[in-house]
């Protein structure tokens, strides 16, 4: 076609502009021929000799074209001209992106479905090429020749698309997770999801850095009371799925999505971030930051400030956020150790990973003794290790250290919510000091109302004290912030169980398993609720599926008691004593209470107090201890632990 045809007055109503890298001209010519055979006018710069590529003629052609087909490739991603033309088309809702070699488009264009035509050949029979033709037809409003358009309703795929400004409906491809939808309604303009950043370094060992920086940015934004920031678990559930920004925004009920990538090499760090409109899928703002690794902390704050400015919302306070609020550090080495520890601790793999996380947090505190975030994290790690793995002697020492570290975090950062939450956790689960834990939990909730994990800890504490008027609002707020977080659904189930809402407890635990089929504890929780509802056979199946022995063994013992099988119950009680020792004293009391052996049950509880068994936090809210409620020793124990 004559490249000057548009200027000569031909109707440009169905003209397609093709943008490509010069090294891809052979493939571009093949696609141009297919477009022309489909009946479209095609403008391309292959016939322009020399000169500026983005010259006056190309500008006129872009402005006249109805659709712009961008041929992405490894070469095209390096071409400023292709990116200029693609940006022009994107902003005018005319973009149809194709990938010639499977390369993903660069940041700024990934909210569009890029049709990969590399498989199946550059020919009309290639299904990918047929989809490309239909995408062009959606813009131009005319079917390609010989390719009638099927009008059978929306086509659902695992990945949603916005092709040339037209949203394509999406379903989750059968994924159970998409059954967990938020109620319909417009997302608040100040709501945002921060997706996990892509690690472009080529070194999987650098993943902790990209994940950690995204998490820290998410936390910083969440501390702004003017923003609603989706929690980490829900945001991270979209890692590697390729979903479009509108799909993610719809599932998380947010108005904005922040995406980005990080490349760390030879002491340099590059962070590219993009703020995307959750409704249209179009980019609101993009920026790339290049800094030496030594400036990591300044860069982190700079990115957060830039994102906040792009949202047209100021972070609270003037200038840089205070360390009293952020719990931060001025040491890059301490921050790096903290991020490494977080990656290990949040993996929840096993005792080895938790102790390795503790070592990293300890290293961060050694480098910067006033690093409140690391002190609070070290407190939580100490408490978890004490609670889950340690025997009595070590347990007391670890819990004592956990309390001390949390208090130090508060000294250095009095407005950092995680420090107060860590102190409440250590006092409640470690020292069994119910009253002393109240103030730090209350302070944590006041300061951390935008942090789903903090809210969840506070909600459980209130449930253990049967303060359900405070527990339910806290867990509901947490789930609104992090709706795809399986652990929060499990926590909701435990709160409902404590309140006597057994059907609701089962439903919440089932929802937790839909979100994460490997989640430990949920099957045992369902079994416990079914026992309370006398659904013994169903409960037995749940306990067989439970991986945590401290839930499964007592459950099986109580099932045996309900079936009048005392020999079976004794077998399970003996197994509990042998496998768990003093770590299972509270669970022994549950079995003995259900066996109508109140004196033995109380002996086990008294010994549990001596051993600082954290199971005692369930004392007031546990229906399995109902047979002990009128026992004088039980009432005395509730009073001594300040439950009443």
Which structural class is indicated by helix and strand composition? alpha/beta
Overall geometric form: elongated
Rg value: 30 Å
Sheet bearing the most strands, described? 6 strands, mixed
User: Number of helix segments?
Assistant: 27
Poorly predicted tracts of residues: 1-12, 49-54, 148-185, 315-319
- Strand residue content: 5-15%
Mean pLDDT: 82
> In angstroms, what separates the terminal alpha carbons?
87 Å
Helix content: 40-55%
Task: Tell me how many strands there are.
Answer: 13
Explained architecture:
Helix content is 52%, strand content 10%. By secondary structure, it is an alpha/beta fold. Strands 8, 9, 10, 11, 12 and 13 form a six-stranded mixed beta sheet that branches. A five-stranded parallel beta sheet has the order 2-1-3-4-5, with helices on both faces. A two-stranded antiparallel sheet has the order 6-7. A hairpin with a 5-residue loop joins strand 12 and strand 13. The model is unreliable at 1-12, 49-54, 148-185 and 315-319 (pLDDT under 50).
């Amino acid at each position: 076609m004559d490249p000057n045809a548009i200027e000569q007055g031909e109707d440009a109503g169905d003209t397609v502009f093709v943008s490509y890298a010069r090294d891809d001209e052979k493939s571009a010519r093949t696609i141009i021929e297919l477009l022309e055979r489909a009946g479209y006018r095609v403008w391309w710069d292959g016939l322009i000799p020399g000169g500026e590529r983005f010259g006056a003629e190309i500008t006129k052609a872009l402005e006249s074209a109805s659709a712009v087909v961008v041929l992405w490739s490894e070469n095209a991603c390096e071409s400023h001209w292709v990116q200029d033309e693609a940006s022009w088309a994107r902003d005018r809702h005319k973009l149809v992106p194709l990938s010639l070699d499977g390369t993903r488009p660069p940041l700024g264009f990934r909210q569009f479905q890029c049709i990969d035509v590399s498989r199946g050949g550059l020919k009309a029979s290639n299904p990918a090429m047929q989809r490309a033709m239909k995408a062009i037809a959606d813009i131009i409003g005319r079917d390609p020749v010989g390719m009638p358009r099927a009008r059978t309703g929306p086509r659902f795929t695992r990945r949603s698309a916005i092709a040339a400004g037209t949203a394509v409906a999406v379903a989750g491809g059968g994924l159970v997770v998409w059954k967990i939808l938020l109620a319909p309604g417009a997302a608040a303009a100040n709501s945002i999801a921060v997706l996990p950043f892509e690690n472009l370094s080529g070194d999987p060992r650098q993943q902790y850095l990209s994940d950690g920086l995204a998490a820290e940015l998410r936390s910083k934004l969440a501390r702004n009371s003017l923003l609603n920031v989706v929690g980490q678990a829900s945001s991270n559930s979209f890692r590697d799925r390729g979903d479009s920004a509108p799909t993610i925004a719809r599932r998380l009920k947010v108005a904005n999505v922040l995406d980005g990538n990080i490349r760390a090499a030879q002491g340099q760090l590059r962070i590219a971030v993009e703020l995307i409109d959750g409704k249209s899928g179009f980019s609101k703002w993009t920026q790339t930051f290049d800094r030496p690794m030594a400036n990591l902390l300044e860069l982190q704050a700079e990115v957060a400030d830039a994102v906040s400015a792009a949202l047209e919302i100021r972070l609270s306070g003037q200038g840089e956020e205070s360390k009293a609020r952020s719990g931060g550090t001025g040491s890059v080495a301490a921050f790096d150790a903290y991020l490494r520890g977080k990656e290990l601790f949040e993996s929840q793999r096993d005792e080895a990973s938790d102790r390795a996380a503790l070592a990293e947090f300890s290293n961060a505190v050694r480098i910067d003794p006033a690093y409140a975030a690391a002190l609070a994290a070290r407190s939580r790690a100490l408490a978890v290790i004490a609670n889950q793995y340690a025997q009595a002697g070590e347990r007391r020492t670890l819990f004592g250290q956990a309390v001390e570290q949390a208090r130090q975090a508060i000294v250095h950062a009095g407005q950092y919510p995680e420090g107060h939450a860590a102190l409440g956790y250590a006092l409640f689960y470690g020292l069994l000091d119910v009253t002393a834990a109240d103030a730090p939990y209350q302070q944590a909730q006041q300061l951390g109302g935008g942090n789903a994990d903090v809210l969840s800890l506070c909600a459980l504490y209130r449930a253990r004290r049967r303060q359900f008027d405070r527990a339910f609002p806290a867990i509901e707020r947490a789930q609104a912030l992090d709706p795809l977080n399986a652990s929060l659904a499990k926590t909701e189930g435990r709160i409902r169980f404590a309140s006597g809402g057994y059907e609701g407890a089962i439903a919440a635990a089932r929802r937790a398993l839909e979100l994460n089929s490997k989640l430990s504890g949920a099957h045992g929780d369902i079994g416990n609720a079914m026992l309370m509802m006398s659904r013994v056979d169903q409960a037995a199946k749940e306990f067989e599926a439970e991986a945590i022995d401290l839930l499964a063994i007592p459950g099986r013992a109580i099932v045996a008691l309900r079936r009048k099988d005392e020999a079976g119950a004794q077998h399970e009680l003996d197994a509990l004593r042998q496998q768990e020792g003093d770590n299972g004293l509270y669970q022994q009391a549950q079995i003995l209470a259900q066996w109508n052996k109140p004196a033995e049950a109380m002996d086990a509880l008294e010994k549990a107090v001596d051993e600082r068994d954290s199971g005692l936090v369930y004392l007031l809210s546990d229906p399995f201890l109902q047979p002990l409620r009128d026992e004088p020793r039980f009432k005395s124990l509730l009073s001594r632990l300040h439950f009443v």
